[in-house]
Structure formats: C-alpha cells, structure tokens
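REQUEST ID: PR-0412
SUBMITTED BY: lab tech R.K.
PRIORITY: routine
TASK: structure prediction, single protein chain
INPUT:
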Amino acid sequence: MLYDVSSSYYTGRHCGLAAYGHNRDGKRGFPQIVYGLLCTREGCPVAVEVFEGNTGDPATLASQVEKVRERFGIERVVFVGDRGMITTRRIDEVFRAVEGLEWISALRSAAIQKLVKQGLIERSLFDEQDLVAIHAPDYPGERLVVCRNPLLAAN
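STATUS: complete
OUTPUT:
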C-alpha cells in the first residue's frame, strides 16, 4: 500500500476538523484539515481519511494499518511511506509486533552516517551496481537497501 498525507487550508467557520497545524499550502492564519490517501501499489486510490488539522503525519498511520487489516481483510501488506511518515517510533509502535505487516521507508541522514562510520556502507559495495542490500545490528531482522545516487555523489 502506498500512503501519504496532505492538507488543505480552510476558510469556513463550521468544520469540526479544522485546526491550526503544519501548513503545506503556505497560507498562514488559516486553519486546515489533514487527509490521508491510501493507494494500491499501482497507485489506484482505495481510501481517503480526513483528520484534524493539527494531526502530524506519523499519527495518521495506525488507523491506516487497522483499516487495511480490519476493513479490507488484508493479512499481509507492505506499507511504503517517506521517512517523515514511517519513523522509527512508528515502526516500533505500529509495525514491528504485527505478523504480516512490513514497511519500506528511508533512513534519516544521521542513521545513514552512523552506518558509514560502522563500516557497513563502503564505496566498494557499488563497484558493480548502484544498489546493494546490507544488514546492521541496529536494525535486527531488517534488510537495508542502499542505493548510490551518481548525481548526489558528483556534488
């Protein structure tokens, strides 16, 4: 499942969900609503949920996991989300203990630098291709896929 969150500012007066929060529209001084879109791996929308405007992206994730498992009856699912959505905390709270529930996300820069300092990511890994899988003690039972971006490497 692909999942992402966005928001829209609100100019009316009678919306119980409108609240001040992280404004993606750049419209200061307006409350907003937050909405999450759940799609199949092909990008076909299957569900939309609206949240209070002050709801942080990661806080919306648990209800989506529950929706997929309970409402749609899917027992094995992989959620794909950005590093702001699928955080280490959410992985521990929502994903790790649930059988059949997996995730794909990105590590934050500090975590990547730590792997480099531990010698787990070396330039020689990319001699033949720009993609490699590694394992690290800080991520037990997880497979980390490391990608070398030649454009970033050139800077």
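NOTES: The beta strands are 2-9, 32-39, 45-52, 77-80, 101-104, 131-134, 144-147.
REVIEWED BY: pending
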